User: Fold this.
Amino acid sequence: MSGLMLENVEKSYGAARAVVDVNLHLPEGKLVCFLGPSGCGKTTLLRMIAGLETLSGGEIRLDGQNIGHTPAHARNFGMVFQSLALFPHMTVGQNIAYPLKLRGVDKAAQKARVVELLQLIQLSEMLDRPVAQLSGGQRQRVAIARAIAAHPKLLLLDEPLSALDAKLRESMQVEIRQLQQRLNITTILVTHDQREALTMADIVVVLGQHRVQQVGTPMEIYRHPANEFVADFMGSGNLFSATALGDGHVRLPAGAVLAVPGSETRAAGEALRLLVRPEDVLLAAPGEAGLAGQVTFVRDLGATVETTVACGGVTLVALSTPRESVGVAVGQAVGVGFAPGACRVLAG
Ligand code: ATP
Assistant:
């Protein structure tokens, strides 16, 4: 099978397990994000793919070939780390040409490739500038140009944007994504930033507690989290407990009964965890929606308004537009409903 295949990949440091039983197929030409909290094993997994870390178990195959014992330098993968690791005493051109020089590419071909890459990253006029004299965003682009100079089979990016300020980071996310799509280069990006993963990835691999928790498109991960860990980590969801009634309804802690499709598969009396996204919590006049609630907090974010309501013994956050939220105030009684199919029963 083409692309990168990980089978039962494991890494332990002594008794401590850093990566447990990872099975993944990363298709050619896609951008895949390894997303997860600090310490979950993202970097270790990336380093094993790069050949910078040995495997404690399992296999890694590229286009069907086992590369587990191929040394890093022979894998022809491009890498960008958080630190970028550019050579500060070298010019932009020398930095980008470095991997070509290592591979013995002749001077003329090196020069032609550097010129081509500088055009691609829109820094043609910076050829002879020392990298120490570049801005953060420019340095970022040079690091990426250097990583792709030798036409790598795989581009590996380990939190490459985490040192940038929020605004630059967002524009670099779009820039890297466009470049990756234009070059159609298979890319793995490690990040702990959910928004970054959702913005950039074709496929998101959510890692937690050293294991793969879910693999899916950004929309699948956000809309249909496989379990509570993913739902919680993707953030901004309302997670709450209820009791199954066995007939497609659930009982909230304060007694209100609510229809939740999917809950009929659970036995009556079983404790459930439910998820509703804030944008699917709909506020109405009292009595006009299923549940009776009371506003406890209003947070005006400019383009959106977050309204916290106490309802049925749980606390929910509703996200709406300023127009929908005119006159909403703390202490107010409201009706609370959910968009059709929005309230989901979580596994596990
Ligand atoms: P972060 O986002 O903080 O970089 P991460 O998800 O990339 O975290 P890893 O750096 O892969 O996590 O680490 C996974 C686990 O393996 C952690 O518990 C870490 O302490 C452990 N670990 C990583 N490298 C080593 C090492 N060389 N020796 C011992 N333990 C290690």
Notes: The mean pLDDT is 91. The CA atoms of residues 137 and 171 lie 9 Å apart.
